[in-house]
Design a protein that fits this description.
Length: 671
């Protein structure tokens, strides 16, 4: 452990001591963003790309006598280049993945696997890793032997490495040092990639695994230990098998530095102020120097350690972490791309561009996701239509034929991670593969679950947790969307109609725990114009992540999967558009917000470009663009007339209106 108040080491301090200044560098969550290029918009960008981070790496190394460079995973999946290498022109044994063409030039010392490394299967992962000139570590993934005896479990990867390095102290003397490096991945990979992993590997708790191996590394001579968890900070409570376990990991004795990631954030930063044991000025967690350098190569993480050799042992006497970005807060470049690294991946990059530009069909109207979190939206509708189309054909002639098919989809690009440019925006006209990849970002495979009407309602209740509770007694501004709720967990289910009452508290929290048992936000849930039968069976088309339990949706845990299709959801959308030739992406309006009694002042944030698509100025109003790049909009709810005179007459009239509307909707779903 490192004393938090340790003084900085000066020249006078080191005259009679063996002091080594060791700089440890980290990249994480590159997601195949090797070039500084947005394949969806088909243009260069200054906001990300390893070719830019490479310049920071070389600069940081030039400032230090002693440095080490590590990567923390989620490297091989995440954009069209990753898909091209895995699916379109598949990497063959003996070939080098473009990620390693770049990283081998940068002389990484070791790498850790992230959860997305498993998305394309274990064979592809092993073929890819074979091209790396540096070792990989992971300690908490084991071979599946099926005997329920943990004493003979064997690691699937090398759990750790002890690197022998020569360092130079402040007097110019050379020394040998042994640097132990150990990696971890969220145990939830067994849910997220069940189809690829079940029966092949098992994953164990991060902290328990560290408790097992850290003493072993010390016994084998590690002078210092660097932990690389592909895991966010998490909470101060340890419930075991945590996805984000870095905070708990920092309490494990013997760890001298932590390089973490997964949650696409930056540390040290003000976002983590106020957490017990976290020092955002020194960049320590419970005294351990720790760093998390964003995502897609946006930042380089630095851990600067002062080591003293005393009685034959190296001791960390001070530590400081920091971040360096490739662009400023306004997106202006701070470094140029490294041309040597770019040349290494240029051919693969150009093949990817050619592929994503190829056409699959046309759309008669624009498709964008600017309003995807606050209204039924065309960017989701296209996906759910395609999934429903696929499953209805898939079940023909099977025992499931005749069971109604619903389809669940979510907004993947909705200003995610605080990026005001991160939205889908496809103009009317030709649709290319790059546009479909923009609609559906992930290489999920299509799966379907068999559930009943009651479970459909609970699925939607969990999804409705995206919204903050609106207080009708308040006149001041209230934000509609809960920023802590991931947009990819906001599922719209097409094939039913429903309303969401945001004046009620959320029934579930973001972890899927029932927190308000008496609250029900989902109102008027209907199928074919009739109140849904809780016992009626439905097939819901979705993806492998959700069907296997991703997002903690109640009752959706992998036990009710009936279809595990070989096709990716994205390819399903491509094939759907190709068969149709031309599509009308207009959303069918199957969900709305329930009317609210009271003149509330509700706002939401989206791109400033959303102004161009406001069709009903009475519902949405642009209020101005903010310093963070997002624009603020007001939203006007339909008014409840529950307390108005003549209520009975209006209800009767409303009944007829709803009846006509529901008949029309029924026709839409049946045709």
């Amino acid at each position: 452990m490192i004393p938090q108040a340790a003084p900085s080491i000066t020249y006078a301090d080191v005259m009679d001591k063996d002091i080594v200044k060791l700089r440890i560098l980290e990249t994480t969550d590159i997601h195949v963003n090797l070039a500084n290029y947005d394949y969806y918009q088909d243009t260069e960008t200054n906001k990300y790309g390893l070719v830019k981070t490479a310049s920071l790496i070389k600069q940081a190394r030039s400032e230090s006598k002693n440095s080490l460079l590590f990567d923390n995973g989620d490297l091989l999946q995440g954009n069209p280049l990753g898909d091209y290498v895995a699916k379109i022109d598949p990497l063959q044994p003996g070939e080098t993945h473009p990620a390693y063409k770049a990283m081998n030039l940068l002389d990484y010392d070791a790498g850790n696997v992230g959860n997305h490394e498993f998305n394309y299967g274990l064979d592809f992962l092993q073929t890819s890793l074979a091209g790396s000139n540096f070792p990989y570590v992971n300690a908490n993934v084991y071979k599946s032997d099926g005997n329920n005896d943990p004493s003979d479990d064997q690691n699937y990867f090398e759990p750790y490495q002890i690197l022998d390095r020569e360092v130079v102290d402040e007097d110019g003397e050379k020394h040998s040092i042994k640097v132990g490096v150990i990696g971890f991945v969220p145990p939830q990979i067994m849910q997220w990639d069940k189809a690829n992993l079940e029966g092949n590997v098992v994953a164990k708790d991060i902290v328990e695994t560290a408790d097992k191996f850290i003493p072993q590394m010390k016994a084998e001579g590690a002078d210092i230990i660097v932990a690389i968890p592909h895991s966010g900070i998490g909470t101060v409570t340890d419930d075991g098998m945590e996805e984000n376990a870095t905070y708990d990991l920092s309490k494990v004795d013997g760890i001298d530095a932590i390089l973490f990631g997964h949650s696409h954030g930056t540390f040290p930063s003000s976002s983590y102020e106020g957490i017990a044991g976290v020092d955002t000025k020194k960049g320590t967690i419970n005294g351990v120097p720790s760093v998390m350098p964003g995502y897609w190569g946006s930042h380089l993480g630095l851990v600067d350690l002062d080591l003293e050799l005393k009685d034959g042992k190296w001791t960390v006497i001070n530590g400081q972490t920091s971040l360096r970005g490739i662009a400023d807060k306004d997106g202006n470049p701070l470094v140029a791309r490294d041309e040597e690294v770019f040349k290494a991946i240029e051919e693969d990059h150009n093949h990817t561009i050619d592929w994503v530009r190829s056409a699959v069909g046309e759309t008669t109207a624009p498709i964008n996701s600017y309003f995807a979190q606050v209204k039924d939206d065309p960017s989701i509708q296209v996906v759910t239509n395609a999934q429903k189309w696929y499953v209805e054909k898939y079940i023909q002639g099977t025992e499931y034929e005749g069971i109604p098919v619903l389809s669940a989809g979510a907004p993947f690009k909705a200003g995610t991670r605080g990026d005001a440019t991160y939205y889908t925006d496809i103009p009317a006209g030709e649709i290319a593969i790059k546009n479909v990849a923009d609609l559906y970002l992930y290489p999920n495979t299509l799966q379907a679950v068999l559930i009943d009407g009651a479970q459909v309602k609970e699925w939607l209740e969990m999804s409705a947790g995206q919204f903050n509770q609106i207080d009708t007694s308040k006149s001041e501004e209230q934000s509609l969307v809960n920023g802590e709720f991931r947009s990819y967990n906001y599922d719209v289910i097409d094939g039913v109609t429903y309303e969401i009452d945001v004046t009620k508290p959320a029934r579930y929290n973001t972890d899927g725990k029932l927190t308000n048992e008496g609250s029900h936000r989902i109102k008027n849930l209907k199928f074919n114009g009739q109140q849904i039968d809780p016992d009626q069976k439905f097939i819901v088309a979705t993806n492998n992540y959700r069907a296997s339990g991703g997002g903690h949706f109640p009752g959706i845990d992998g036990s009710n999967i009936i279809i595990q299709a070989p096709d990716e959801n994205r390819n399903v959308v491509i094939n759907y558009i190709m068969e149709k030739g031309s599509i009308n992406p207009e959303a069918d309006g199957n969900w709305n917000f329930a009317p609210i009694h009271g003149n509330v002042n509700v706002i939401f944030e989206t791109s400033p470009k959303a102004q161009d698509y406001i069709k009903n100025a009475r519902t949405y109003k642009y209020l101005g663009t903010q310093d963070n790049g997002f624009a603020k909009y007001s939203i006007k709810f339909k008014q409840s007339d529950a307390t108005n005179p003549g209520q009975e007459k209006k209800q009767s009239s409303g009944f007829m209106t709803n009846l006509i509307s529901n008949v029309a909707r029924s026709f839409h779903f049946l045709k």
